Amino acid sequence: MYGNAYIDPNEKANSIVAGEDPEKLAEFEARISKGEKIEPKDWMPQEYRKQLIRMIEQHAHSEIIGALPEGTWITRAPGFQRKLALMAKVQDEVGHAQLLYSAAETLGKSREAMINDLITGKSKYSNVFNYPAFEWADACIIAWLIDAGAIINQVANAKGSYGPYCRALDRICTEESFHLKYGHDAVVTLATGTPYQRKMVQDALTRWWPPIMHFFGPSDKISQHTEILMKWKVKMASNDDMRQQYLNMYVPKIWDLGLTLPDPNLKKNEETGKWDYTEPDWEEFKRVINGDGPCNAERLAVRRNAEERGRWVREALKTADTKYIVPLA
Amino acid sequence: MIKSLDPRITRAEIELTNTIAPLEENDQWETYEVFHQKKRGDQHMHVGIVHAANPEMALLFAKEQYGRRGQSVNIWVVKTREVYTTDYEDSDIFDTVPEKMFREAGGYKVMEKINKYKKEHKI
User: Fold this and answer.
1) Rounded Cα gap, residues A77 and A190, in angstroms
2) Which pLDDT score is estimated for A222?
3) Burial bucket for residue A59 (CB in 10 Å: 0-12, 13-18, 19+)
4) Residue B52 bridge partners (DSSP)
5) Which of B1, B8, B30, B87 to mutate: most A Cβ within 10 Å?
6) In this predicted structure, what is the pLDDT of residue A223?
7) DSSP H/E element including A241
8) Mind telling me how many Å the CA of B111 is from chain A's nearest CA?
9) CATH numbers and ranges of domains, chain A
10) Exposure of B71 by Cβ count < 10 A (0-12 exposed, 13-18 middle, 19+ buried)?
11) Tell me, what's the pLDDT at A225?
């Protein structure tokens, strides 16, 4: 699972390629437009490196932190089968973080630096994971509908230009297909169950709909920043386009179960072929991503605690000749 | 102490406002490049890296991270710092030049000769 890397559409975009060697830049862009992959030791513009590090790192953090809301229900999963499946899923997510940290490292930021930036709150992760999983049904909604969003994002990004990221995403997407099926099955089980189970899943869906609408990030169509990132195949689709794709794929499936969504304006516009919806509350999005959400403090405290309590083990295993160099690919 | 929706977290007695010293260099050890073989008879292929304190741990992590869905029968790991590589910048060293056609199948065209011979000797 994953969230979209948050790129502020109002960021100054003027200096993106300032100071870059124009000849090398042209060669780099030609290579990308031919569909070639960029590899770690190739020349790349500074901004390309910076944005990729930020994006892949945020993606990795999201996998790690996403394991927390979902893991909330491992001890109380309804039945052994569900418990095994949820444990496998959460373990997958942590594995995805490992793959993604590795890909980001090839760009020159050490894993220690990335972990430090996460636990001090300097780096972001997907905003949805700052919300709690109140009930078992919340964990089911996450597994189906958050993972569904993640897959749309990841399938798009897997066609990007940076080789190590694409390869990690290919592997991740294979595993995500199990998550989606598992999540759908868990939601359908509740939705076709007793009136109480239906109420549980409806309540969870109502709670999660606003964060789901936030998932792909604010509208970014007007940004020059987005334009160049799309040209460099760092970003493969605009936030709005991905949100439309998501609504198109999943709203009918949700309605098919007789569940309702808490947005009276949500409907497909037959003329434009696009979905109309109430504009999500982007002020809340900004507030939560900047630290003031229901679970931000807990998520990071738990993460710090894990690093701290595992530190002596890592120390004990360290040998005198340990010598880190940037991984190859 | 955190009172979490997750009983495991509540039990761990974690301070909400805890602070820790930053991770130092080499805290996450070093990296090993991982090669896996999907099935017997295939070649081993590079799939990525793991961080590990020793080769045994690297093999264990490699199995967890790259062999999770029954896609491997065998794994190799080697320390990243012990791999020697060429540079992409030098990839012209692999270019084939036209005068080396003598080592290509396409460098040998016999039909013309045969047809010419047949025509001359009315075969």
Assistant:
1) 13
2) 58
3) buried
4) B30
5) B30
6) 65
7) helix A239-256
8) 38
9) 32-314 (1.20.1260.10)
10) middle
11) 74
CA A68 to CA A86: how far, in whole Å? 12
DSSP state of A142: I
A contacts of B64 (beta carbons < 8 Å): 95
Distances (CA, A) of B76 to A186, B38, B47, B52: 38, 12, 10, 14
Are A133 and A118 in contact by the 8 Å Cβ rule? The answer is no
Q: What is the pLDDT of residue A309?
A: 96
**Lowest mean pLDDT across A21-30, A178-187, A271-280, B101-110:** B101-110
pLDDT band of A196, cuts 50, 70, 90: very high
Tokens 């160049």 label which residue? A228
Nearest Cβ partner of A134 from B2, B5, B66? B5
pLDDT of residue A9: 45
Instruction: Determine whether the interchain pair B65/A99 forms a contact, defined as Cβ–Cβ distance below 8 Å.
Output: yes
Q: Which chain A residue has the Cα nearest residue B5? A: A72
B66 CB neighbours in chain A (<8 A) are: 171
A19: left (phi over 0), alpha (psi -120 to 50) or beta: left
Residue type, A235: K
Token pair listed for A79: 């039945």
pLDDT in tens, A61-116: 999 999 999 999 999 999 999 999 999 999 999 999 999 999 999 999 999 999 99
What average pLDDT score do residues A170-192 get? Answer: 94
Contacts of A49 (CB under 8 A, 6+ apart): A107, A108
For chain B, what are the domain ranges? 27-120
Share of chain A above pLDDT 70, in %: 94
Shortest distance between the Cα of A190 and any Cα of chain B, in A, equals 21
Is B31 in contact with A325 (Cβ distance < 8 A)? yes
Q: Burial of A247 by CB count in 10 Å (0-12 exposed, 13-18 middle, 19+ buried)?
A: buried
With beta carbons under 8 A apart, name residues in chain B contacting A326.
80
CATH, domain B27-120, list 3.40.47.10, 3.30.160.250, 3.10.20.520, 3.40.50.720? 3.10.20.520
CA-based nearest residue to B58, from B25, B42, B27, B80: B80
State phi, psi for A141 to the nearest 5 degrees.
Answer: -65, -40
- Interface ipTM: 0.87
Q: φ and ψ at B37, to 5 degrees?
A: -110, 125
pLDDT tens per residue across span A249-308: 999 999 999 999 999 999 999 999 999 999 999 999 999 999 999 999 999 999 999 999
